[in-house]
Design brief:
Largest sheet: 7 strands, mixed
CATH class: Alpha Beta
Bound molecules: zinc ion
Number of helices: 9
Structural class: alpha/beta
Mean pLDDT: 95
Radius of gyration: 18 Å
Helix content: 25-40%
Low-confidence stretches: none
CATH architecture: 4-Layer Sandwich
Strand content: 25-35%
């Protein structure tokens, strides 16, 4: 029997710190291959709760370079470095300028790296972060998983990417932050699950804070995410990274809004929500 694709939503929060929700992060596991999609606040705390850690990660994929999607990349880099004993590289895939982000992180870790190299005889090299900047549509084979990318629409946070993880004829899609777009539609076609970040423009429009109003420019609403799910013919839609921050008792309302446009299963994901696709 082949392994299922296992999804664990490690963090489902908005950019605003929330005692119950970590920042946007999803773990996808295929057999023994562990892939991390985005790396928000508290990613490794939730990974520990899901029974994995930095040393078990085979790669990190970033959808885009808004800080809430990679706040804890430095933690992953450091912990991977310290907790792996064969000093293997950590592959990090992302859009253009991912190398710039990683170089900056490594520079900020300069003193720590120097101290640990001086202190541990068996640690002989600085963290090895192998960055691959992806352009548009590419396919990456990692263990039992095939990862396919497509460009999304989140300007000015550009370029941005969505990812599709395939294994044994099954597929799940991680949209990241994006308006509806052709790239995401292509990835969704024939997939079972779509994980999509969403906003409620009907609520945001009533909050007279210009900086919050701006959020509406470049995110999908619940309705738009549901329409993307319907066009792609996916079986299940997981709503995550909800803005404005959602209270647990409001989940039914968000779900009902999506159900107006999508007839499949809909979940408003909480941290550590798990799903197996086989
Ligand atoms: Zn964003
Ligand atoms: Zn975001």
């Amino acid at each position: 029997m082949t392994a299922p694709i296992e999804l664990v939503l490690l963090g489902t929060g908005s950019p605003i710190p929330d005692p119950n929700r970590a920042g946007p992060t999803t773990l996808v596991r295929v057999g023994t291959t562990n892939l991390l999609f985005d790396c928000g606040r508290g990613a490794l705390l939730r990974a520990a709760a899901a029974g994995t850690g930095a040393a078990q990660l085979d790669a990190v994929f970033l959808t885009h370079l808004h800080s809430d999607h990679y706040t804890d990349l430095g933690d992953v880099v450091t912990t991977h470095w310290i907790m792996t004993f064969d000093q293997k590289a950590l592959p990090v895939y992302g859009p253009a300028r991912t190398q710039e982000v990683v170089d900056g992180l490594l520079a900020s870790l300069g003193p720590d790296i120097e101290f640990r190299l001086a202190h541990h005889d068996d640690l002989t090299a600085a963290p090895d972060v192998a960055v691959t900047e992806l352009a548009g549509t590419e396919t990456i084979e990692l263990g039992a998983a095939r990862v396919v990318t497509a460009p999304t629409e989140h300007r000015p946070a550009s370029p941005s990417l969505a990812y599709r993880v395939e294994h044994d004829g099954h597929a799940v899609v991680l949209a990241g932050d994006t308006l509806p777009c052709d790239g995401l539609d292509r990835l969704c076609f024939g997939a079972e699950v779509l994980v999509h970040t969403v906003i409620r423009d009907d609520l945001i429009r009533n909050i007279p804070v210009p900086r919050l109003q701006d959020v509406c420019d470049y995110h999908s609403t619940v309705a738009q995410a549901a329409q993307t799910a319907a066009r792609g013919g996916v079986e299940r839609l997981l709503l995550t990274h909800c803005v404005p921050p959602m209270l647990a008792e409001q989940a039914d309302e968000w779900q009902a809004l999506a159900a107006e446009h999508f007839g499949g299963a809909i979940d408003v994901a909480e941290d550590l929500f798990r799903l197996s696709v086989a």
